[in-house]
Predict the structure.
Amino acid sequence: MFGVRLNPRVCAVVFAGLAAAAPVSAQSLQPPGWDRDLKLAEAPDRNPDPHIVEIDLDARIAPVEVAPGVRADAWTYNGGIPGPLIRLHVGDRLIVHFSNHLPQPTTVHWHGLRLPIQMDGVPDVSQPPVPEGGTFTYDFVVPDAGLYWYHPHVMSAAQVGFGLYGALLVEDPKEQVNVADQTVLVLSDIGIDNRGKLDSPDSGGSTGMAFGREGSYVLVNGRVRPRLVARSGAPQRWRIVNAAKSRYFQIDLDGQAMTRIGGDGGLLEHPVKLDTLVLAAGERADIIIAPALKPGAELEVLSFPFNRGYGSVEYRAVENLLTLAIDTQAPYTGWSLAPMHRAIEPISTEGATPVNIEFTLAQRPDGAFEYGINGVPFAKDHPITATPGETQVWTIVNKTKWSHPFHLHGFFFQVLDDKGRHVQPLEWKDTVNVPLEQTVRVVVRYDDRPGSWMFHCHILDHADGGLMGMLDLGVPHADHSAHSTH
């Protein structure tokens, strides 16, 4: 329907590729079935063309079991939580025949992908909502390698909280990562009561909205505490997405090293070593682990409470995400990470248009809380304007007592430090955490995909509660001062 390929010259400017060199070969080092307990189902491709992936995606209520004896009728894509993994290569065309069998309208938003506005899945902006019993065909080309994800943008907090989300992996055959064994980990949570019913999306009223509701069961690929097998010393590549509607994950491997090689928009400029990994809602990470443990040992992969504001650490327990079981084979000693470098050109901030926004929280006369952009819920009357080719520096001031993952639809940006310098190593982001009562700056350059693009907090209760605005790209303007709100 809208099979649009991005201008390759624009792609070259906005998204620098990997260094041109032959791929590094790698062989599997893990025992057979090492990821059997959490391996994601993949969407069957019904198109024989190797450069077209054509799938069916059906939103429907279906029974799921997240742990032994814990069952619920969840909202699913193709009957499972998460939805099927969609796997493509850079430059492939994706055709998704979407059908809605839920009791309310919905859409599919392709989080992080640079695609035409008509395919972005925002109701009444890029497409009409898909009604109960309705269909819609999504059709676009994927220009960038990386891990992305898909979820609805109608009543987002409720629908994502009920189970509507899935991962989309775009691979580049030229990528230089010498790790053959990789798995996709979709982190999320869900609220299920002792009767097997899903928690009300309105629990706690506006106070629950102001915090951002978290589910009682923490899931990895739709399961509570699944098991992953590893050979000691052998590398595994974990592609991780935080698909929870509010929860942050602070991942710890009990002293085992993690090497982060990528994030939202594919590989970093160069790898970095980590002791812990923090993922705000909507963020992704690409990490390599090579646990050095005795054969037969077990390691609990934990998520520690992360301070995203009042209520997020008080009386909160450490969550056990999954069990890493070390195989009985002798440790592998022949692996080391091959040298990696990705050429990413920093976006120049010289002459950039300033955009100043504030995240605010107010209490209405009736006592209900309401989020806003510059004091205006949903910022309906105050869109930010831009033109193709323009560069903007956004200064995002969080005046609230809760942190907010800022997400911009349709475009990558680069994060700046408090002195206006690019944060190192360079990477492409579409979601960045704005800590409570702090300021974050990002720089973005727009290509030629005009339309009304959404930006919002990816704690979806906050977005539904007013922390959402629009970027109008392609609207001519002569007065750049209109961008700024002081």
